[in-house]
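Predict the holo structure. Ligand: nicotinamide-adenine-dinucleotide.
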Amino acid sequence: MRKMSRKYKIAVLPGDGIGPEVVSAALKVLEAVQEAMKGLELKFIFGEAGYNCIKKYGTNVPKETIEMLSETDACLKGPMTTPEEPGSPPSAAVTIRRTFNLYANVRPCRSFPNVPALNPNIDLVIVRENTEGLYFGEEFEVSPGKGIAIRLVTESASEKVARIAFELAMKRNHHVTCVHKRNILRITDGIFRGAVFRVGKEYPSVYLDEVHVDAMAMRLIKEPEKFDVIVVTNMFGDILSDEAAQIVGGLGLAAGGNIGDDYAMFEPVHGSAPKYAGKNKVNPIATILAAKMMMEYLGEKEAADLIQSAVIKVLKEGKVRTYDLGGRSSTFDVAEEIASKIKEI
Ligand code: NAD
């Protein structure tokens, strides 16, 4: 049953490179969902962030944008180019995750009909700790040619991310796999593993097992269908989730949510792919699925299901698809097709 009058303020950060194209494609789909579902009201509030802000504001996430985000219910973010020179601002995504303590990065990975995948039955989610680990970002050159990076792991952040993983498993197939490298990183991954197993005791109906990260990289290729929810530290999770994206059709389909206690930001897993910027060529489905995850987070499951069904229909038909899936359609053709399926459903 559809509730009446559900209003949400959505912060939209189009980003740079291919960001504005894929975000505008996702907005087209959200507008179709809004039309299809009486009572759903999405107010889009646009903000600046990304590479193009650096010259103007001296930072890639201006304080006006942070203030705007803090007044909204959730954020849909496009990819943004991160400058690599030492002394440049950190990645905009990292800044937003830290500012709003978005401690869990949730990256679903599933096979879609008519999209080449290693196995047609893959349906797993990687839940990655999002604020610590090696991406904590503290590095020092202790003497010329000798550098040290800090790997921060705390019990409290590990427990929080573990809880998100178990809650998710409760809604799925009741299986959590803790991925670590405790045989080498005995203290940091010892703390992470300990936290996951402690939280696991609160979820007796969830089967919990563990796999070393190097073995996990192999098993994602060998038997990906055996996993449900994978919980893992920051950098290991980043690497495994790109691998997982590739085994089900590539970055053009991979979406992620950054979840905290009070706020969440959704984005495609891919970056700004500058060489394709402005060409209306890349796949918008990753960003459209990020919008779907955002609707789920807002409690609008019906809207989320509508988006997912429309995406599956379009992929199944296989007539309108971008170059990465072997087609010749444009970014906007795909968005139009998904939006029109939503109106039909
Ligand atoms: P990338 O993901 O931008 O692109 C790598 C390649 O993947 C592209 O050349 C393209 O072949 C393919 N690809 C990416 N998105 C696609 C799509 N939607 N459809 C079809 N093909 C797609 O990775 P990169 O080149 O390593 O990074 C470019 C910039 O993006 C860097 O500055 C990086 O720091 C940044 N980045 C930002 C985010 C973010 O904003 N969250 C994430 C990753 C990378």
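DSSP finds eleven helices and twelve strands in the chain. The chain has a mean pLDDT of 95.
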